[in-house]
Amino acid sequence: MARITLDHIRHAYGANPVADSDYALREVHHEWNDGGAYALLGPSGCGKTTLLNIISGLLQPSHGRILFDGNDVTEVSTQGRNIAQVFQFPVIYDTMTVYDNLAFPLRNRKVPEAEVDKRVRDMLGIIDLADWADRKARGLTADQKQKISLGRGLVRNDVNAILFDEPLTVIDPHMKWVLRSQLKRIHKQFGFTMVYVTHDQTEALTFADKVVVMYEGEIVQIGTPAELFEKPSHTFVGYFIGSPGMNVLPAQLNERSVVVGSQRMDLNVPPQTKPGDRIELGIRPEFIHLGREGMPVKISRIEDIGRRRIVRAEFEGKPLAIVADENTEIPAEARVSFDPAGINIYANSWRVGGEA
Amino acid sequence: MEKTYNNKAWFFVLPVLLLVLFSAAIPLMTVVNYSVQDTFGNNEFFWAGTGWFTEILNSDRFWAALQRNLLFSVIILALEIPLGIFIALNMPKKGLGVPVCLVLMALPLLIPWNVVGTIWQVFGRVDIGLLGRTLAILGIDYNYVRDPIDAWVTVIVMDVWHWTSLVVLLCYAGLVSIPDAYYQAAKIDGASRWSVFRFIQLPKMKRVLLIAVLLRFMDSFMIYTEPFVVTGGGPGNSTTFLSIDLVKMAVGQFDLGPAAAMSIIYFLIILLMSWIFYTVMTSSDKDA
Amino acid sequence: MLELRKAAKMVAGEYHIHPSDLTLERGSLNVLLGPTLSGKTSLMRLMAGLDRPTEGAVYFDGIDVTGMPVQKRNIAMVYQQFINYPLLTVYENIASPMRISGKDKATVDREVRKAADLLRLTPYLDRTPLHLSGGQQQRTALARALVKNASLVLMDEPLANLDYKLREELREELPKIFAQSGAIFVYATTEPSEALMLGGNTATLSEGRITQFGPTIDIYRRPADLTTAKTFADPPLNFIEVVKSGGGLRHREGDVLPLPAHLGTIPDGPLTVAFHPHHLGFTQQTENSARLAARTQISEITGSESFVHLEYDGVKWVMLAPGIHNIDPDTGIEVFLDTRHLMAFGSDGRAIAAAAA
């Protein structure tokens, strides 16, 4: 297991990058703890896969260094970095049995056969495939194949990090649940450093201790799931995390209060802004209470999605999404109030303060 | 696979079926007809029964030609398949080199058989051929007209030059369909170059290899034009393969009956060998 | 109106689609929900006329169209893979079905621009699909389906290859866009949450059978049998085996669940009771809650909510509780089950009395 240091890493695919926009990955400078579970979350093209490939050694960054436990591995090959990776589509050796698939990385490293057998049998138990040991890997289901890919990484027990590249893409929803919690259990049990790339917020948030949100080649926020939910540092994080995403309303600051249209809300701490900044108020649909008291809204549609309802409304001429649970009564003449703890203030899309 | 219920598709196949009927099925029936009859010309035919077949099967000349054919096919497969795989593995996977390599590889395939034969016939001549002269200057005693071994070497080298490209192109198509993730995973698993070949590339190439082996077997077993042009079956009978023997018999000696019987035996041998190849190579597919 | 009348598809002596009856109304949105290989695509192929049913018949507006080839029906299809003509521009891609049907130039132009506007493709009309993002490529395919003005639009997991957030946006737009066209709209998905967000009607599929068909939210709340309930649950359902006697549901460990009103009239006897993860909680919400002792396994936090995996009497449960609860594994905790939404199933798997709405 290792601590991963990303030292001023930048990467461009083309030669001679000049402008910021030439870079698929702009400056990334962070240190990731030994044994941590990290998720890289963002839309396609945000640079998350580039960053993963730099960590695994498939790509050399244009600038900067990467260190494992303080040792510079920038020039070290993929093999030399001692990492494991699970890919989007299951990679298995179809002509081998399940057992031989798991034994493969060990035999390649000349581990004595008695030790191989012991470790492979242990791993078959951990990934729940003991009964399948002697089957050819070809006939298995997608989730079983993904477990083999994972097992091939874990069986080495000396890996520096395990990398996951959207590993649940081809898995059915029901199996996703099983695999996800199995993965989490394995992380707790073994304490591997894990890096998980995904565009699916649920996967990222449930898997990771720390989620790294990326947008246009930059890390916009690193935080615990709760921090990302409650205090998104950029309006993009607010939009990307949460379903539906955060409501972002144009606003003005007025000393100790924020004004949206004709509505005024008091703030405890006035945020630091410069004149001319574009000010917005962000509030998640979960922090808006629907009732008979508060500010007026016009409800345009109610979507019943089972355990909760999404209320689409118009507030001060802007669309507003509100989440109500299945037992909440929605009055005809509805009014809303914003939970002060859920208010965030943004200047030019970056969070400058909040909490009324 | 799901079957469609639209039978109109048959109309599209009909011309081909008719063509095959006229170009293959009807001649084949004529051959069958000849093989059981005897003639002294003037369109007078006499029933000969299985006579021609027994004669052919008892003739040393036939067995010798068959042996030569089998030996030739085995050598050709043993050279072209590994060489084809080797070249395909070493071809660039991306960049400007890809079209260049593909065109280079496709070139020999575009040349007609008799032209290939003529090229090599001239190429190897000791008096004026580049190869023949060079070898002679180097002090190597090479003469395909005189020495049976030299004649064989020439015919084999010519076939390898002409047809290895086909194996290369088929294998290359199999190789480029392997997703990058497989190579990455193998690196991560610490697999050696040999393991990557054995467990990733070879399994993925298996289907195209099967086609390559079948095509090359059938083609080499039926080889005619090139040796005919270069060596004319000689020196002696050393490069007289079944097809050449057949033509000698039918056209040269006008022994239509035995030639027809031999054709049919020849045809059945190819059918049988292809079937054996196919079953052996696909049987390992069903052990999942 | 599209009707399947006892339509079935048998391949090599095995039913891929069991004899099925299904009626889809004009202007309706119909979701086919089921896991991979449950028969969604096979069923769509029967509807489209790509396959002929081996038994039964397909009717369109009262006319038997069984065996009518797909070219003669007015059908549009969108697939999971982004299928466009790679060498044509977005404009020509969208225009292609109208070119085939021989529309005049002005009409083609008007329709293409309208569809492009609706699907926010106007800036990309001159590009070829290879220079577009996945979302834009799929929107091009959707626009082509839209201009075809088909009476039946079939979509086979059209958003599966797109990013989560893009999926969310398109999912919201799609029903609106196609609602105006008056076509019958069929949408296949493996994800229950997608079905719920689309609304409309849902047919749940399992192993080649349509297990239930009706308004989406009704099926979610009142599944007719266990298979449907399991198909239509993400996160997965929790189960508890109980015996109904008098005023309570007795579990063999001695726990008693208070009998909710909607199960009051059913006869005494053993039942399988199912409930959604969000009906378990840390606090007693109503007097209809039962207090149960469980052991924790692992907690997953989504930022605003927590999925706590539990074990109750050897059975695995998931609880979805608001707030952040990171509880150590293998800790004994008390949870409350809100019995107002229980679903009860008999030993034959049929629903006995469904949950109150």
From TrEMBL, chain B:
Domain of life from the UniProt record: Bacteria
Main location as per UniProt: membrane
Entry GO terms, CC: plasma membrane
SUPFAM superfamilies recorded: MetI-like
Membrane spanning stretches: 12-36, 70-89, 96-115, 160-183, 208-225, 256-278
Entry annotated with the keyword Transmembrane helix: yes
Example GO BP: transmembrane transport
The entry's keywords: Membrane, Transmembrane, Transmembrane helix, Transport
Segments forming domain ABC transmembrane type-1: 66-277
Membrane topology: Multi-pass membrane protein
InterPro entries: MetI-like (IPR000515), MetI-like_sf (IPR035906), Sugar_ABC_transporter (IPR052730)
Subcellular location: Cell membrane
Similarity field: Belongs to the binding-protein-dependent transport system permease family.
Protein name: Glycerol transport system permease protein
Lineage: Bacteria, Pseudomonadati, Pseudomonadota, Alphaproteobacteria, Hyphomicrobiales
UniProtKB/TrEMBL annotation, chain C:
Subcellular location: Cell inner membrane
Record has Membrane as a keyword: yes
Gene3D superfamilies: 2.40.50.100, Nucleic acid-binding proteins (2.40.50.140), P-loop containing nucleotide triphosphate hydrolases (3.40.50.300)
Keywords: ATP-binding, Cell inner membrane, Cell membrane, Membrane, Nucleotide-binding, Transport
Ranges where the ABC transporter domain occurs: 2-232
Listed InterPro entries: AAA+_ATPase, ABC_transporter-like_ATP-bd, ABC_transpr_FbpC, ABC_transpr_MalK/UgpC-like, Mo/tungstate-bd_C_term_dom, NA-bd_OB-fold, P-loop_NTPase
Example of a GO cellular component annotation carried by this entry: ATP-binding cassette (ABC) transporter complex, substrate-binding subunit-containing
Family: Belongs to the ABC transporter superfamily.
Protein name from the UniProt record: Glycerol transport system ATP-binding protein
Source species of the chain: Rhizobium soli
Phylogenetic placement of the source organism: Bacteria, Pseudomonadati, Pseudomonadota, Alphaproteobacteria, Hyphomicrobiales
